[in-house]
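re the bet — no i am not wrong, look at it urself. input seq straight from the record:
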Amino acid sequence: MSAPPHRVSRPGEVRIIGGRWRRSKLPVPPLPGLRPTPDRVRETLFNWLGQDLSGWRCVDAFAGTGALGLEAASRGAAEVVLVERQPQLVRALREHVQRLQGAQASVRVLPGEALAVLAGLPAACWHLILLDPPFDAGSALYAAALRQARRLVAADGLAYLEAPQPWDDTTLAALGWAVQRQLRAGQVHAHLLRPLDNAAP
């Protein structure tokens, strides 16, 4: 018997796929270039991380729709910071936080450029840094974000990088990271990264 079709979010909404807000549908503005992380990729990422993120401190540095950060909050993260520069998306994120029961206790929305906001966050105390920059941003922004994430992440923490192409081990090592898991889904290359000093041999 064939497997049931994989459910996906429709354009204009984000569907939380796990945790206490599972199946919640949140409207998002139809802005050019907005590219929510596909449901399949999010599902795989949180399979990698484990379904229970209780006590985790997370930063979603290019929040956009908030799909990644809100998924972490839904699965129990104690603190989630959503960073977004576009005013329309900032308003939508704040509405999401108001709409989701209990989200106000764990989710903060910080407006501003990702690199500037990351530079102002405390170092070495975050369990998960989520990086999903615009695919047309160029490698310099990706590299700068990875450097900031390396400063922020705790010794046993992780980073998630979503990009239009795979990042090789040598380039990542120069930025202080090693690949723990990775996948390709269509045009998306997803990388789960561990600080290099703590990477498995």
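see?? Residues 84 and 111 are 5 Å apart (CA to CA). told u. also The two ends are 41 Å apart (CA to CA). so pay up
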